[in-house]
Amino acid sequence: MFGLAVRFTLKDEDSASGFDALVGETLPHIRESEPGTLVYAVHQVEGKPLERYFYELYRDRAAFDAHEEQPHVKRFLEARGAFLDSVEVDFLSLQGAKGVAG
């Protein structure tokens, strides 16, 4: 399995609303058309209203690469910059889990 964690820091409250709307447009496409995307969880960070945290888990690196090539993901990646102050990405190697086929 292949995963990543992403922390987005948004510019301001208006940017947070726009970013959340963009995520809301993108998520249904990921659910419906990406069988190799096992987990795609989007979180608001408690006590930090301008932060969002994504946890993504893919069947393998090829599934992640396929995710990145989807039109809805390309649109998200192109549009998100208008809302962001910063982004941090950590690529993860799953060592153990509960509730995830492995």
TrEMBL record:
InterPro entries: ABM_dom (IPR007138), Dimeric_a/b-barrel (IPR011008)
Pfam family, one: ABM
Keyword Oxidoreductase tagged: yes
All residue ranges annotated as the ABM domain in the record: 2-92
Keyword Cell cycle attached: no
Gene3D superfamilies given in the database record: 3.30.70.100
Key words of the record: Monooxygenase, Oxidoreductase
GO molecular function, one term: monooxygenase activity
Listed name of the protein: Quinol monooxygenase YgiN
Species this chain originates from: Streptomonospora nanhaiensis
